[in-house]
Specification:
Length: 311
């Protein structure tokens, strides 16, 4: 099976689209770092700035139409600001690790690009007529399908690692290498203010984000396998991804929504103590995502094995 995986990886990386997507990962990551630097004015007095921010969060909490998620976010930021002022803890000066943590939204770019590639892994073979050439080989359909799944999963992992490496490199140029032992204020699972190593938080948030990335890769590949349409696979997967934020917000009001994968796809909510529901934990969300990944994998593998492959 190793040869099949290597062959799928070779086909994937030889595509012009792959090189374009990897170049876009580098460009968007570098651009986001530069824009963040340009839009962050220097702070002369951190206490004055923190007092201003605390007052801003208090005003936000007075808004009656504020959603539960935004209210919790404002409350958390207010709590951290008050802790800084009370215990005389200045914010960390500009450093690449804090910048990487702030730019975690770039993971959505990785998800979109991974969806585009996964959507074409099986449907593209049907469209080009090369699926028959794969099936006449002395290989089982299980090996063929899983070699494609593993190849596109590895590509998603490469994009995620490239995002982190490129982001660190550009931010290191902008802020300096920084201290790997630097700690900042965070809220733990119990809502208590604690000091935690920023680098370890970056490793945790980007590392765990591979699970939701794999969720969307699996969804796109499953739709591609079952419907044999790249366009439908991209469309359905992106629609699910876009509506995920709405589902996360709605989960605060409707308990049953917490069992849907889209309400559990934003791992950063647990790093910043913003679970959609009080009883939801990081372990719960990861378990839900892994369960759906397993179900989608089983369904698409079964369809691929049973379907008439005559072309």
């Amino acid at each position: 099976m190793g040869g099949l995986i290597a062959n799928e990886c070779m086909k994937l990386y030889n595509r012009k689209l792959t090189r374009i997507l990897l170049a876009l990962v580098v460009a968007f990551t570098a651009g986001a770092a530069v824009l963040a630097k340009l839009n962050t004015p220097p702070i002369a007095d951190w206490r004055t700035e923190t007092i201003r921010l605390a007052a801003q969060y208090e005003e936000r909490l007075k808004l009656t139409e504020l959603s539960p998620m935004l209210r919790a976010d404002a409350h958390n930021k207010l709590e951290l600001a008050e802790y800084r002022l009370e215990h005389h803890v200045p914010p960390l000066p500009g450093n690449p690790w804090s910048a990487l943590l702030a730019s975690f939204g770039l993971v959505e770019m990785v998800m979109i690009f991974a969806i585009v590639m996964a959507a074409d892994m099986v449907a593209g073979e049907y469209a080009s007529g090369t699926m028959k050439l794969l099936l006449i080989r002395p290989r089982s359909r299980t090996e063929i399908w899983f070699s494609k799944y593993i190849a596109v999963s590895l590509f998603a992992a490469v994009m995620l690692v490239l995002t982190v490496v490129c982001g660190f490199a550009v931010n290191a140029v902008l802020y300096g290498i920084g201290n790997i032992h630097a700690a900042d204020l965070f809220l733990d699972g119990n809502g208590q203010v604690v000091r935690q190593n920023v680098m370890m938080q970056v490793i945790k948030i980007y590392g765990l984000s591979m699970v939701p990335v794999m969720g969307y890769v699996t969804l796109a590949l499953a739709v591609s396998t079952i419907l044999r349409s790249s366009a439908l696979s991209v469309g359905i997967s992106l629609f699910m991804m876009i509506t995920g934020n709405s589902v996360t917000e709605a989960a605060a009001k409707l308990e049953w929504l917490k069992y849907l994968p889209f309400a559990n796809s934003d791992i950063s909510l647990y790093i910043f103590h913003l679970p959609p529901r009080p009883e939801m934990t990081l372990g719960f969300s990861l378990s839900v995502l892994l369960a759906y990944i397993s179900l989608l994998t089983l369904a698409s593998w079964a369809v691929f094995n049973k379907r008439d492959m005559s072309i």
